[in-house]
Amino acid sequence: RTAKMIATNFLLLGLGLAASPAGTPYEVEWTYPTTSLAHAVTLYPDSLAPTGIVVADKQTVTRLDGTGKKRWQVAAACATPATVADLDADGTTAVIVCLEDGRLLCLDENGDQRWQLSLGARGGGFKTVLAGDVHESPGLELLVGLNDGWLHCVSARGKPLWRFWGDKFTVGPAAVGDVDGDGHVDVVYGTDNGHI
């Protein structure tokens, strides 16, 4: 089995580990030049049956198909990798990123804006956006941690549902699941001062 690698400027995504017949460790299938240093690549529409990727960088959000062809590109100063999910269970995929100016931006599968929401915090406090079912509202919710200690929960339609202040330090990426076995979904996250 030949290993394949997809390159996007300085970011590489390995798709295998076997050596190629020529003895080189990887075969580069295609490359795509990003506008600036890219955040982590996100599989599109999901990790089970990906047909492409979404790349968020400091200037754009770009959706590429599996051959590296650009499907769409939107100007956006991204502060996080993209999160890709079917938020409202309508069979269409949304692409969500946090922007450097403190807004949460939701794009549809064609790159058109669904909604945006200002979370009131600017800059590098964003980690990642997590989509999960943590509220009785329809669809999936988005959990976003900020550098001011607040964890925000936003509905599939971009409406604030709740927020939680843990301490004065940055909220790290959250995890969602019934971690204590009581039948209720738990939200767990870490902070920069070493607390969970």
Structure characteristics:
about 200 residues, mainly beta, four-stranded antiparallel beta sheet, 17 strands, about 0% helix, globular, disordered N terminus
Brief characterization of the structure:
The protein has 196 residues and is mostly beta strands. Helices cover 0% and strands 44% of the residues. Strands 4-5-6-7 form a 4-stranded antiparallel sheet, with no helix packed on it. The protein has a 4-stranded antiparallel sheet with strand order 8-9-10-11, with no helix packed on it.
- Rounded to the nearest angstrom, the radius of gyration is 18 Å
Amount of helix: under 10%
Order of helices and strands: EEEEEEEEEEEEEEEEE
| Low-confidence parts | 1-19
Broad structural category: mainly beta
Instruction: Profile the largest sheet.
Output: 4 strands, antiparallel
Mean pLDDT: 83
Separate helix tally: 0
**Could you tell me the strand content as a percent range?**
35-45%
> Strand order, biggest sheet?
4-5-6-7
Q: N-to-C terminal Cα separation, in Å? A: 42 Å
Shape annotation: globular
What is the β-strand count?
Answer: 17
Task: Describe the protein's topology.
Layout: E1 4-8, E2 11-14, E3 27-32, E4 42-44, E5 52-56, E6 60-65, E7 70-75, E8 83-85, E9 94-98, E10 103-107, E11 113-118, E12 129-132, E13 141-145, E14 150-154, E15 160-165, E16 171-177, E17 186-191
Parallel strand pairs: 1-3
Antiparallel strand pairs: 1-2, 4-5, 5-6, 6-7, 8-9, 9-10, 10-11, 12-13, 13-14, 14-15, 16-17
